[in-house]
Amino acid sequence: MKSVNIGIIGLGTIGRGVYSAIKSNGSLIAKKTGVVLKVKSVCDTDKKALKSIKDKTVAKQFSADAILLDKDIDIVVELIGGVNPAKKIILSALENKKHVVTANKELISKHWKPIFDVAVRNNLFVNFEASVGGAIPVIRVIQKSFIADDISTIYGILNGTTNFILTEILEKACAFKTALKSAQQKGIAEKNPELDISGKDSAHKLAILSLLAFGRYVSPGNIYTEGISMIEAQDLSNAGKWGYSIKLLAIAKKDGGLLQLRVHPTLLKATHLLSGVSGTNNAIFVKGNLVGESLLLGKGAGSKPTSTSVLGDIVEIARQIAFVSKRNTLPYNLDYAREEKNIKKIEELEVPFYTRFSVIDRPGVLASISSILAKNSISIANVSQEERKEGKTVPVVILTHKAKEGNMRKAIAKINAMDYVTKKTVVIRIEE
Amino acid sequence: MKSVNIGIIGLGTIGRGVYSAIKSNGSLIAKKTGVVLKVKSVCDTDKKALKSIKDKTVAKQFSADAILLDKDIDIVVELIGGVNPAKKIILSALENKKHVVTANKELISKHWKPIFDVAVRNNLFVNFEASVGGAIPVIRVIQKSFIADDISTIYGILNGTTNFILTEILEKACAFKTALKSAQQKGIAEKNPELDISGKDSAHKLAILSLLAFGRYVSPGNIYTEGISMIEAQDLSNAGKWGYSIKLLAIAKKDGGLLQLRVHPTLLKATHLLSGVSGTNNAIFVKGNLVGESLLLGKGAGSKPTSTSVLGDIVEIARQIAFVSKRNTLPYNLDYAREEKNIKKIEELEVPFYTRFSVIDRPGVLASISSILAKNSISIANVSQEERKEGKTVPVVILTHKAKEGNMRKAIAKINAMDYVTKKTVVIRIEE
Q1: Which positions of B are catalytic?
Q2: Phi and psi torsions of A355, nearest 5°
Q3: From residue B38, how far is each of A150, B14, B124, B263, B310 by CA, in Å?
Q4: With an 8 Å Cβ cutoff, are A148 and B215 in contact?
Q5: Complex ipTM above 0.90?
Q6: A138-299 and A346-431 share one CATH topology?
Q7: Which CATH superfamily is domain A138-299 in?
Q8: pLDDT value at position B388?
């Protein structure tokens, strides 16, 4: 049977997971595909990580060069994450005529162009299924299965940590900080959770999906991004009462000649397919002119689920190496991608809003808020003030009809400056 | 730009849909993939269908031979359905060195072996994504994305017609026949709905999924199959009260050295991902040792959604034709498939059951039923007799603990023979 040599660079959770998955499922993979995957070398700068690989036939390397310069290695699997030194390593692998598999969303979302330039020039594959949605095969599905579609909308729950936290706040009726701590204790959130809870991780993934689905590239730094740290249990229960869930959504939408790209907490109808996605699951909703509405759901992280995607990528390349002499490595969709300038400005967005005002309970407050909203062309759909505490702070929740975000921002700034407001107003967009 | 010639055989809903999709999305596809898809000829025995294709540059053929013998045609798209004459046409296309794309579940589920024998011998692709799950990319996902997984379980809602009927019975609290009629009026059920409502269509699809996921082939005729015609509104509402939905599930499961393959109405926990799949949607739940639990959901039928899958298949081949000189057409997983003899006998199955007895309301009936169940080693989990109509027929619903199906059948046969039973007992398996 043909055999393909692999070098794994980076032995964190995912790297060790891929190694273990090849160990546990390797003979099944060989039976299914006719190719034996052989891990020839692994590399990490951490001695302990290297020591965790017991197999003596696997070379343990401190330096990536030992893999990058090894003529016997066919596929380099980069699982370090982050831009540096991953970018240098991948470019060097490609210059050394090695195919690449990576799970690196930040790198692909920011530097796909120079990477694919070298890959196409050298007729090499760069596969990155695990970079978005963990075990969810969204990259292959958008690139291949839905290739004929004019995709108009993508909604993604692309970050398991934040989805877990939102589920936890709802179920335990606890504070954001408590839910975050619980996620950290369970190993679901990192010690420094900033990348996840700020929405930036989702923005990286959204940039990749936009590139593949629309052929339109926007650097993640130019994607409007909001995190979830201002969400309180009362927002989730208020939303529930009105028939909505709250999810951190990554949204990509064609809007006339413009493109909407945004990551923010969103009220979604409780009946929407994505509203039932709880805990660490990820899910991606895709709408196209042929396929209609489609949903992919699965584990968004974790070493085993992510291994599925990394190994699917490895096998695809391994079969090409084993069975095809002349290859077509041209990436689907990427060759027509262009830098997108026509992004819809967030101020121009028109959606309904959920707003929670923290105000002193006294006569005239609601009249003042309503009047400021009205002056900014924002009309009210629902108001709810359930608590009464004369002279104390109470929440007033208002759902608006569709309004321009720019107007909403002006109105909220004005209201926040009023003496009856005791805390910054929470504003959450509603997706219809 | 490179161009690939296509011949479409069969201009029913799907055939016309694929033609229209190429017309509407062809230039987008070319932009995305670098290949122009050119429909050179279409074929149908129905003059009216041929006339519906207005484009004068497309040759209209009465006979498939005009396409099969045309040296300029690269890909034959078979969309006739059924075994004859589709089998002959596909084999002839392959003998004439043409790649094949088909949506034909019956043909692939019954005759994949001779078809792939010729295809592999002639180094040709036979793609069949649209044969299972309409627009859901389950074939590619199981063959490629989850290739590294040891898949243990597949649950599929694979037939939109029956799922629509079950949804309709639940929502309208109507009879099966009324729901079927409504489905027929909406064009969701065919005039002769036998293939759908008997579960046979789902069995065809399950045979294909088992082949791909496990490499184990069972002819659809050997798959235990039950339809939905005995389901009444009260069964759906009873199930609901106990926290279950009822779905026509296609189930494939590894069970020790045996394989469970079965299609039947099933009580599923209301919290299960598949319980929320309503109307004509299809969905497939896959569990593997790496990927964990994964769900694919989308439109199971209709000309546009099905076109997505057919075109994904066409594009994959077209890019190979356009850009690769030596191809690897070896099908993933199929080359290791073997005929499966070790199917779990349905009598050996051990699951909990939902049973609805139609019995005369008189003292001693419940005691008699309980005693017969007990004698057959079946223990009761829940009993409900809500109506009281002394001397008249009332429903008695019993949920059992796990019991052997063989025992259950014996018990039910005995109970059905009792004088207090006025109608055949409804028995539905529960999936835990």
Answers
A1: 205
A2: -130, 135
A3: 18, 17, 19, 40, 14
A4: no
A5: yes
A6: no
A7: Dihydrodipicolinate Reductase; domain 2 (3.30.360.10)
A8: 87
